[in-house]
Design a protein that fits this description.
Blueprint lengths: L29 H11 L5 H12 L5 H7 L11 H11 L3 H9 L7 H54 L3 E3 L2 H6 L3 H11 L3 E3 L5 H4 L4 H4 L16 E2 L1 H11 L3 H18 L3 E2 L1 H5 L1 H13 L1
Helix pairs in contact: 2-4
Length: 292
Amino acid sequence: MKHKSDNLTIDIFDDLPPKPIVVTGGLPCRAKIAHVMSDALKIRDRYRVVASINRLLGRKVKLSHFNNFTSESRSDSIPPLDVAIAFDLAAGSSALGKFYARKIAAKMVFGKEALDAKLGHLERIRDEATKEIKWLKRVIGELQAITKAYDMSQQAAKAQLEQSGRPLVTDEFDYVVDKNLVKAIGSFYEENHAVILIISEENFPQELEVWAHFHGRILNWYPAEPAVLAVSVADDLLERLVEKTRGNVRRICTNLETIQGESLGMGWKIVDLATWKNRRSTLAKRQGRDDG
């Protein structure tokens, strides 16, 4: 489908400046400078322009030198920067200024166009600032919510510890050390003065030494006691235990703890599958004998 050309709408991409010249040897433009100056003089009197240049500079620029500046064949004559500025002012144009701007990937704007560009720049800054303000307000709101939740949890924990008189038990404290949360626990202690029971790995006392302030506040160190064989569990009971738990290690340990507790209560040093199955009847007989 063909589109009709719209002669009333300016293409915003027509006057975009080119990319800046960065290649070696890509900047020589003596002939183009002369061409730009010649075009600007087509509707102006050359002698009057030179007279205005001399007046603006406060010194005399010879007409012959000026003619060399505007001659594309004179590659050795390039107008100095102050002469180029005076030329644009004297010729009532911005030909050399615009030419120079395009060489550095820029664009010169004047009058209302300059005001529109400045307004657009300020509006863009305003929009970016508005977005940043909204983001900061959201972050501040989230921080306030987190702080409020933390304060509420602190108050609840403090009230619970004061009312119950129980210690605060922190298991796997090596995680607290790894995550640099030791100061948080220390702050909690300073605020509540609660008894804190810390459980961790064997090398924990040495690892905590880097936190000297916290390390020095620990009252007592109690190393874990080595494991002892209080009750011997027979192989047939172990096999049944593995079968019932489907090899789940955590459940096996929990059941072994139960077996040990009940066996110690019954006075058994060795417990097998048959003994474990009959533990209820044995307990009933003991209770009956004690009652009699």
